[in-house]
Amino acid sequence: MEIWIAVAVVVVVALFLVATYNRLVTLRQRVKEAWSDIDVQLKRRYDLIPNLVATVKGYAAHEAGVFDRVTQARANAISAGQTGGPEQRAAAENQLTAALRSVFAVAENYPQLQAVQEFKDLSENLTATEDKISFARRFYNGNVRDYSTALQTFPTNLMAGAFGFAAEQYFELAEAAEREAPKVSFS
Question: pLDDT tens digit string along 52-74?
Answer without folding.
Answer: 877 777 766 656 677 788 888 88
